[in-house]
Amino acid sequence: MSDHDFAFEPQPGLPKPLPPGENLLWQGSPDPSALAREAFKANWVLGYLLLLAVWRASIAFQDGGFGQSVAVFIPYLAIALAAYALVRLLARASAKAAIYSITSNRVILRIGAALQVTWTVPFTKIANASLATRPMTGTGTIALELVDGQHISYLALWPHLRPGFRHGVQPAFRCIPDAAQVARILSDAAQTRVNEPVVTFTAPAAVAAE
Question: Rounded to an integer, what distance in angstroms lies between the CA atom of residue 24 and that of residue 106?
Fold first, then answer.
């Protein structure tokens, strides 16, 4: 299911040329801002560090007044903003390095900012697919449930997987724009490829804003 070593891509996101009769139907990448918010929890990181800064500043205020409170708060604020910027940078690098592809026969995930890895999942290895979208933006995640006997490492895929499913890891097109349209492309391609459709989409589930 994977191609771990490759030095040349005949086309971005594809480790090898597609064989005759197989067509590329769609390619895309995660939205960096959505990936930072949903996978890297950038807003949670910033919120936690700001709360820590306020707490430390309040203690300093009780001990030394307003001046000491400000002197304590500013370094913590700088740390919070630097950590937030770092998380956003990591998310952007992860999103830029990832290319998701749908062909007439399979799904391909080329991922990895530092060490690139390509995962290939034929439609015959997919038992089900689920779609979760954000109503306001249209971005969403398409998760692929694999048939019994197919396993992919959680760490090898993160963050390109369905959140909350550490047991029974589901590779995913994470935080992609126009997710509903991409889901239709995947569903139509899978149903065309197999004699009896094995990929069906559940109703889109709205994801609560963080």
Answer: 9
Could you read off the pLDDT of 85-138 as tens digits, one per residue? 999 999 999 999 999 999 999 999 999 877 888 999 999 899 899 999 988 888
Kindly give the pairing relationship between strand 172-176 and strand 140-146.
Answer: antiparallel
Domain ranges of the chain: 30-97, 98-206
Q: Tell me the sheet residues that pair with 118.
A: 3, 110
CA atoms within 13 A on the CB side of 39: 28
pTM: 0.82
Q: What's the chain's Rg over C-alpha atoms?
A: 21
The three-state secondary structure class of 186 is helix
- CB neighbours (10 Å) of residue 64? 12
Q: Within a 13 Å sphere around the CA of 51, how many CA atoms are in the beta-carbon half?
A: 6
Q: What is the CATH number of domain 98-206?
A: 2.30.29.30
> What is the torsional sign of CA 169, 135, 183, 16?
negative
Cα distance between residue 187 and residue 185, in whole Å: 6
Q: Which residues have C-beta within 8 Å of that of residue 202, sequence separation ≥ 6?
A: 128, 130, 131
Site of tokens 């995913």: 172
Which amino acid is residue 93, in one-letter code?
Answer: A
- Tokens (6 digits) for 86: 């770092």
- Strands 2-3, 99-103: pairing is unpaired
